[in-house]
TrEMBL record:
It comes from Acipenser oxyrinchus oxyrinchus. It is an enzyme of class 3 (hydrolase). It catalyses: GTP + H2O = GDP + phosphate + H(+). This is Ras-related and estrogen-regulated growth inhibitor. One of its GO terms (molecular function) is G protein activity. Belongs to the small GTPase superfamily. Ras family. Gene3D superfamilies: P-loop containing nucleotide triphosphate hydrolases. Pfam families: Ras. The gene is RERG. Keywords: Cytoplasm, GTP-binding, Hydrolase, Nucleotide-binding.
Length: 174
């Protein structure tokens, strides 16, 4: 198996769902409350995945993305995280249109995706049930994780690593 593989991951979802908080939680195991929602950031992170050193490039997309920018980010990415907020039904409703746009930009066979329902710590304000998340993930044929960037509950680490594994598997058979 190739060493020092690179995997490009782009994170999408409505503004405020916790994309930046999730990425920073994954990278630092910490929660930082506020980010500039208009900031787009790319991080490079080395991880040991199944005895291989993998360099992950993670693009944390920003709120005011126009269609052209979004298209560019989708073309760039190999693995995608679509995030919604379990306390914001509207953010859940935006998942399917995002996936459809992704399929338009890339051939569906080039789309490796995971679905993340964030803010699982806010159970009292929940608007989207776990079952609805699971059902949507089945429709999208992707893995589903419910988690909290705030408390660290759920498998944020595993989600990113599993996405990397899937992208690498796909690249190996193509
Ligand atoms: P982005 O626009 O998708 O990048 O969202 P941010 O990461 O900037 O987060 C938006 C707001 O939600 C911030 O005030 C965060 O502190 C908050 N937030 C993010 N993740 C969580 C979470 O898991 N639980 C809670 N309670 N708040 C969160
Ligand atoms: Mg952000």
């Amino acid at each position: 198996m190739a060493k020092c593989a690179e995997v490009k991951i782009a994170v999408f979802g409505r503004a405020g769902v916790g994309k930046s908080a999730l990425v920073v939680r994954f990278l630092t195991k910490r929660f930082i409350w506020e980010y500039d929602p208009t900031l787009e950031s790319t991080y490079r992170h080395q991880a040991n995945i199944d005895d291989d050193v993998v360099t992950m490039e993670i693009l944390d997309t920003a709120g005011p993305e126009d269609l052209l920018q979004r298209e560019g980010h989708m073309r760039w990415g190999e693995g995608f995280v679509i995030v919604y907020d379990i306390t914001d039904r509207g953010s859940f409703d935006e998942v399917m249109p995002l996936k459809n746009f992704l399929d338009e930009i890339k051939k569906p066979k080039n789309v490796t995706l995971i679905l993340v329902g964030n803010k699982a710590d806010l159970e009292h304000a929940r608007q989207v049930s776990t079952e609805e998340g699971e059902k949507l993930a089945t429709e999208l044929a992707c893995a589903f994780y419910e988690c909290s960037a705030c408390t660290g509950e759920g498998s944020i680490h595993e989600a990113f690593h599993e996405l990397c594994r899937e992208v690498r598997r796909r690249k190996m058979v193509q």
